[in-house]
Amino acid sequence: MNTLSWHAAREAVHQAGIAAILPPRRQKPSETDGMTLAAPLTALIDLPAFPTSSVDGYAVRGAGPWTLTGRVLAGELPPPLAAGCAVEVATGAMVPDGLTAIIRLEDAKIENDVVAGTPRPKPEWREIGEESKVGEEMLPAGSPVTPAVIGLAAASGYDMLDVRSRPRTAVLVFGDELTTEGVPGAGRIRDSLGPLLPSMLRHAGATAVPGFSPRGPIEDTLESHVAAVQAALDDADIVCTTGGTMRGPVDHLHATLKELGAEYVVNTVAVRPGFPMLVAALPGERFVVGLPGNPQSAVIALASLVVPLIAGLTGRPLRALPQVVLGADIAGRGPDTHLALARLADDGTVMPVGHRGSAMLRGLAQADGFAVIEAGTDAVAGQTVKFLPLPGMQP
C-alpha cells in the first residue's frame, strides 16, 4: 500500500483526470453555464466593432456652440459630422466620423437647436478594438464558463462554443447499519452522506446521474458492491462510494475494485482527518473514489481528491490554494497533513470551529473549509497557511 502525501495525491489525481479528459462538444453559449472551455475564446471581430458612445449626449465637431442637425440611435449608421455641428447620440450608438467630443446630456444646454456645453476631459466614446482585437485570445482553454463568459461569447459573435461538460457522478452509500428515514437508534445510524454528497458534487462542478444521487444503502456483501458499482459505471464518469475503504470483515471496496479490474491512482493519503481515502481508474476512462464513512472525513476526501479529478477531466488547471492568516493556534498531526475545519472570521482571519470530530457534522455546517497545517508542523496565530475551501465556498 503506497501512502502519498496530501499534496502529491491531489496532483496525481489531477493528472489522471487530464489523461482521461472528457471529449469536447459544441453547444450554444446559453447552454454552457458551468461547463469548461475546450478551446480558447478568441475574438472573432474587433470589440467594439465600431466606435460607440458610452453616454447619452451630443456628438460635436470643432468649437462651440454647435448647430443641432439630427439624432443617432443605437443600431443606426450616422453620416459624417460637419464642423460646428452636433448630433444627439444614445448610449451604444455608433458615433459619426469627424466628432471631436461628446457632451453629456446633463452637461448640455439646448436653445433654438443650438447646443452649448463643456466636454469632460476624457473622451466619452469607445474606440474600435478597445476591448479586444480580432484574433486575440480573450480566455484560454480550461476556463470555467460563467454567466459573464457566456455574455462575452455572445457579444463577440459566437453562435456555438467548444466546451467540456460537467463530469457525471454517482453516489453509492454502503452500510447495513444505515437508515434513511426517521430518528436513529438501536444501533442504526441515519445516513447523512447520501443527502449531502450530491449537492456538494454539484458545487464542485459535477452533474448527477439519475437514479444514483444517491443509491443505497447497499448491502454489505461483495456481490452487492460489485453489482452496484458496475451499474453506476454504465453512465457515470466518477462513482463516489462511502465507507468500506478499510479492509475489515464487511469492507468490500478493495475486493470490488480488484474484481472490476481497477488500478489505484491513490491508495491512502497521509492526511487527518480523512484516512483512508482512495481513487481507482477503471477501463473506459471511469473512476471510483472511495470516501470514508465518517461525514467530515468523506467531505475532506471529496474536497481533496474529487475536486482535482473534476478539474483534470474538464481540462481545468489544478487551482492554487489561497493563503489565509490564522486567528488561533492549530496543532499539527505528526507526519500527516492536518486539514483543520475552520471558518472565516469577521476580521479576515481564519478560526477553527468546534464539534470537529470526523464523525460530526455540526462543525462542518459552520465552516468555510480547512486550514492546511503541513505535515510535521504546528501552526500559530498570525501565521499564513493554505486554505482548502469547501466546494461552493470561497475565502
From TrEMBL:
The keyword Magnesium applies. Pathway: Cofactor biosynthesis; molybdopterin biosynthesis. It is an enzyme of class 2 (transferase). One of its GO terms (cellular component) is cytosol. Its cofactor is Mg(2+). It catalyses: adenylyl-molybdopterin + molybdate = Mo-molybdopterin + AMP + H(+). InterPro entries: MoaB/Mog-like_dom_sf, MoaB/Mog_dom, MoeA-like, MoeA_C_domain_IV, MoeA_C_domain_IV_sf, MoeA_linker/N, MoeA_linker/N_sf. GO terms for molecular function: metal ion binding; molybdopterin molybdotransferase activity. Its EC number is 2.10.1.1. SMART domains: MoCF_biosynth (SM00852). It comes from the Bacteria. The keyword Transferase applies. Keywords: Magnesium, Metal-binding, Molybdenum, Molybdenum cofactor biosynthesis, Transferase. GO terms for biological process: Mo-molybdopterin cofactor biosynthetic process. CDD domains: MoeA. Pfam families: MoCF_biosynth, MoeA_C, MoeA_N. PANTHER family: GEPHYRIN, MOLYBDOPTERIN BIOSYNTHESIS PROTEIN. Catalyzes the insertion of molybdate into adenylated molybdopterin with the concomitant release of AMP. Belongs to the MoeA family. This is Molybdopterin molybdenumtransferase. It comes from Stackebrandtia endophytica.
